[in-house]
Each structure stands twice: as structure tokens, then as C-alpha cells.
User: Fold Uracil phosphoribosyltransferase from Oceanobacillus jordanicus.
Amino acid sequence: MGNVFVLDHPLIQHKLTYIRNKETGTKEFRELVDEVAMLMAFEITRNLPLQDKTIHTPVVEAQAKVLSGKKIGLIPILRAGLGMVDGVLKLIPAAKVGHVGLYRDPETFQPVEYYIKLPSDINERELIVIDPMLATGGSANDAIHSLKKRGAENIRLMCLIAAPEGVEMIKEEHPDVDIYLGALDEKLDEKGYIVPGLGDAGDRLFGTK
Ligand code: PRP
Ligand code: URA
Assistant:
């Protein structure tokens, strides 16, 4: 069964409070999302495997550690996932980036896929699906199904804020996927917004309404 990790590092929690605040404007919102994404990436990569490497320091020959194992692929869900990509790339600059374009129908809340472009070797990579919001779970569920259909095997999901409904959907549909969250909120409202949440992540990131 996939695990759910709430990354309750004080810096993440502090910055999330400002992200949630409706008085926070577009520029600051973007900067904070970028910073939290970087901090989350630090926590998520804690368990990456290492291997020994012999190097020569200016003083002696030494055994040191380098990353081993699968390379990383980042899969932001358009549009709001884009706001977290640069923050993660600051720590994993060589990661390849694929895009899944989905929007949520405002009436039915059902995700509609309109774009997909992925690295050719996704089956050999450790993929991190990125979206600030996991609400009903429909968008992330669809994106993960799309990736699996194309051969992906190792997938994690990273979101700023989730509702219990979304977490349950991913746990049920994708028990192999670990979920990393900045916060697990109370519930969804009747419009499918996370409560207390942060409002519409895409609109707040890009200044649209
Ligand atoms: C938001 C968000 C997620 C989705 C979450 O995207 O970024 O992708 O809603 O909701 P769900 O879990 O109920 O599917 P939105 O559809 O608003 O599109 P956008 O990123 O283009 O603004
Ligand atoms: N999408 C958002 O951007 N915010 C929510 O609260 C739910 C879905």
C-alpha cells in the first residue's frame, strides 16, 4: 500500500501559511510555491540510493558517495504544477520533465486531458508527479493512469495541499504510489475546493480569474 507523508518541516508549514493567505499577491505566491517545492524536494529525495565512488581529494584517495539507481523524471500537471517545477529542478537539475495537461470540468469535477508530452524513457525513471492541489483526486489519478499506460512503473505524487477524498482515491487506485504533502486539509466544499485550502492554485500562480 502506498504511504502518505505529510512533510511538516517548520519552514514548509510557515511558508504554506502565507501561500494560503488570500492577501498574498501573485509575485509572492509564486516565490513561496517555488521555495516550498524546493524544500519538499529535499525531503522527498532523502531516501535516494547511494553508491561508493573512489575520488582523489587534494590530500588523499577517498571513498565518497554519489547517487545511484534510477534517474528522476518530473511530471507537472498543467497548469498549476508548473509553479513547482523550478523549485524541484534547483535540487535535481538534471531531471527530465514531461507534461500532462489536464483541467477539471467545473460542473462535473471530472478531469479532461488535453496534452501529454513525456521523456521517451519514462519506464526507466523514478517519476515525481507534481501538482499543488489534490482535491477530488481525479486529475492526479488520471495523470498517473496515463503514465502507467505508457510504461511508467515507479511513480510518486507530490502536492502542496490535499483533501482526504483525494488521498483516498489515489491510495485506492494506485496503492503503489507514495504521496508527499505539505498539508492534509479537512475536506472539500460543494464546489470541489479544498477547505481551508488556498483557493484556485492556477489562478493564484498565473494571476488569472
Ligand atoms: C487544479 C489543480 C489540480 C486539480 C485538482 O487544476 O491544479 O490539477 O485542480 O483537483 P482534483 O483533484 O479534483 O482533480 P485545474 O483543473 O484548476 O486546472 P489549472 O491547473 O489549469 O488551473
Ligand atoms: N483546484 C484548486 O486549484 N484548488 C482547489 O481547492 C481544488 C482544486
